[in-house]
Amino acid sequence: MNNLKTGIAVIGCGSAVPQNQLTNEHLSQIVETSDDWISSRTGMKNRCISSETESLSQLSAVAAKNALDMAGIAASDVDLIILATSTSDDLFGSASKVQHLLGATKAAAFDLTAACSGFVFALITAAQYIRTGMYYNVVVIGADVLSRWVDWSDRSTCVLFGDGAGAVVCQGTTDRDRLIAGAMYSDGSQNNCLNLLYESQSQSLVEDITVQSGTYQPITMNGKEVYRFAVAKVPESLEKAMFQAGITSEDIDWLLLHQANQRIMDAVAKRLKLPAEKVLSKIADYGNTSAASIPLTLDAAVREGKVKPGDTIAASGFGAGLTWSSAIFKWGQF
Ligand code: UT7
């Protein structure tokens, strides 16, 4: 406990993607689709796909290391690692493996699962630990390797997903809190719209006792319903966050949404009256990387020099659960 009743600053970011690139042309060799359909309906051109030597833990550790380097913080000074993922290498969690790979020996580490909303859920969760003074340096990672769980014969989903990891470093500050608003939401009544379900078969052990043994089944999605949900809930939650922060959309420098569909990002920007130049998008390069998409996109924009210290970012994640979450924060050390 550092007893610093503080705010949170987001002071470093990093990312990592697998080497192999899967293009729209490649996908059109696998299922009946085309570059034209995929790009016009989603904005995607390419995605990165993990090979057998690239694990979720490794990608996460590289992203976190890059974020720590930018923040100028040693791994040994990290207090907590939160790994937002739905595709852990190990159902018991992969955060401890990441802690070990990073050499963050004093850090506690745990996984958090909220699908494509996971990164913003984890950022808000990290802020609670920092604000109470329990932890000072917290690494928040969003990482997924959904390619493991894609049905490569289903053209309605297999063209969408890619793999990757992104991370930010959050630190306590006695100065103003830079996470100026944030909230998390869930609606389990729509749970069946997007799933990666466990399916089992009964196996009799002894009389009257059976166990259920099975595995997870590939992703299924009702794309239209999820689209409708996203374009309704994301602007609403961002408007609430702006109200909470006491700002208007004119004060927003960048809109940083989960990268599920360029058309969703454009529709949200339009509803919030934000010009297209303020929408951060890497969907063409990476596709939908689930929990990784927001920190991956942030990292690219920071390293390209687009996002500058002090800029106000409105971020929103949405997806399976269904879950959604918005946060407004000021980027960087300034
Ligand atoms: O990350 C979690 C959150 N996920 C999302 O937010 C995803 C939200 N949903 C979406 O982004 C869109 O619904 C999709 C991109 C998934 C689909 O776009 P759509 O405009 O809603 O297409 P659709 O599902 O209504 O399909 C339109 C047509 C259908 O053909 P018919 O029935 O009109 O003849 C589909 O069979 O497009 C067909 N289709 C395809 N055609 C070529 C579906 N997938 C493909 C494909 N290539 N890959």
Task: Please outline what is shown here.
The protein is α+β, with helices and mostly antiparallel strands and 334 residues long. It has helices at 24-30, 35-42, 56-71, 95-102, 118-131, 155-158, 223-245, 262-271, 283-286, 293-303; strands spanning 7-16, 20-23, 46-49, 80-84, 108-112, 137-145, 163-173, 179-186, 194-195, 198-206, 209-216, 220-221, 254-257, 312-319, 323-330. The chain has one domain (1-190, 218-334): Thiolase/Chalcone synthase (Peroxisomal Thiolase, Chain A, domain 1), CATH 3.40.47.
Structure explained in plain terms:
The protein is an alpha+beta fold. It has one domain: Thiolase/Chalcone synthase (Peroxisomal Thiolase, Chain A, domain 1), CATH 3.40.47. 31% of the residues lie in helices and 29% in strands. It has 10 helices and 15 strands. Strand 10 and strand 11 form a beta hairpin. The model has no long low-confidence stretch (mean pLDDT 97). Oxa(dethia)-CoA binds next to helix 2, helix 6 and helix 7.
Number of strands: 15
Question: What's the CATH C level?
Answer: Alpha Beta
CATH superfamily: Thiolase/Chalcone synthase
Shape: globular
Unreliable stretches (pLDDT < 50, length at least 5) are: none
What does the main sheet amount to?
A: 5 strands, mixed
Helix content: 25-40%
Roughly how many Å is the radius of gyration?
19 Å
Which molecules are bound in this entry? oxa(dethia)-CoA
Distance between the termini: 25 Å
Protein structure class: alpha+beta
The run of helices and strands is: EEHHEHEHEHEHEEEEEEHEHHHEE
Please tell me the CATH architecture by its name.
3-Layer(aba) Sandwich
As a percent range, the share of strand residues is 25-35%
- CATH topology: the name is Peroxisomal Thiolase, Chain A, domain 1
Count of runs of 4 or more consecutive helical residues: 10
Mean pLDDT, nearest integer? 97
